[in-house]
Fold each of these.
Amino acid sequence: MAKMMFCPNCGQPGKPRRIVPGSVLITLLLLMFWLVPGLIYMIWRHKAAYLVCPSCRARNMVPLDSPNAVQGRGAAGSPGPTSVSG
């Protein structure tokens, strides 16, 4: 089970999604006709997998207890900068 993380890009906490590059169809074709290249391709796909934010698909999610997440969650609840013209 993936632990909860925080996305500094969109500010959403959540469980990251695992993205596996490549194609399942190519994997199956290689395994059916050329076993060794198919195994190499399958291993590469799973070794190259990465986690992304479920909302914006950014790759830079951080744990909820990290300083960046604590700062980001604190800033999300505060009002934005105001300009005073005088």
Amino acid sequence: MTQFQFYFQCAFLLPILNELMADPEISPPSTVPARPEALILAPTRELALQIGKEGHLYGQGSMVSTQVIYGGTTTFQQRNKIHVS
């Protein structure tokens, strides 16, 4: 990842994570059913995976859980990722 890509991802990931972690009404990821609190759209699968990886890294140790969903795979499998998390 280039330095530009790193700063670009931090520019929108960190404010989102900051808001999520500061919100007392957000339920922990173990609460079922969890609900999406933020959605980040990416133009490519590779970028979506990279953003998901960074989101997971930055949110580690907090109540924030990240999932990456992209086209080209079965809907059932990806929907399961959201419900199980």
